[in-house]
Amino acid sequence: MNTNDKDSHAHTLPEANQEIPIFTKLYEFYKSLSVVIPSFPKTKRYSLGLKIDNITLEIIELLFYVPISANKTLTLQKMSVKLDLLKVLIRLSKDSQAMNNSNYLKLQVSLQEIGKMLGGWLRASKQKSP
Predict the structure, then answer these.
(1) Which H or E run includes 112?
(2) CATH label of the domain that carries residue 124
(3) How many domains does the chain have?
């Protein structure tokens, strides 16, 4: 395999995932989140803020595993659990005054859309599984 083959193969999966609407939504969510977390009080920025950041990145990472996963439904379920946890942590951020209501509402709307997309994908995946 020459280096050109490696390069073209290395970019196949990410390019394919970048065309998936849920990837676009997650990407936009993370960009919004990246603006909000630095405004967290210092006492919460490196605990709650970091946890929210890491879980979001884990969801994006799992998205890249779906096409190559032996059990797509299981991978999607893992994403769903992490998304539910993310919703709770975002709400906790608002309730603990680490985040204002405006940012909370913006992020929650995005998470609801992502959740609907993921739910549809999960239902479709379960129907395909024997």
Answers:
(1) helix 101-128
(2) 1.20.1440.60
(3) 1
Residue 32 near residue 110 (C-beta atoms within 8 A)? yes
> Which pLDDT score is estimated for 114?
98
Cα 101 to Cα 49: distance, rounded to the nearest angstrom: 16
Low-confidence ranges of the chain (pLDDT < 50): 1-13
Residues 73, 60 contacting (CB under 8 angstroms) = no
- Residue 32: CB atoms within 10 Å: 14
Task: Say what angle helices 21-36 and 50-65 make with each other, to 10 degrees.
Answer: 170
Range of the domain at 34: 3-128
Q: What are 52-69's pLDDT values in tens digits?
A: 999 999 999 999 999 999
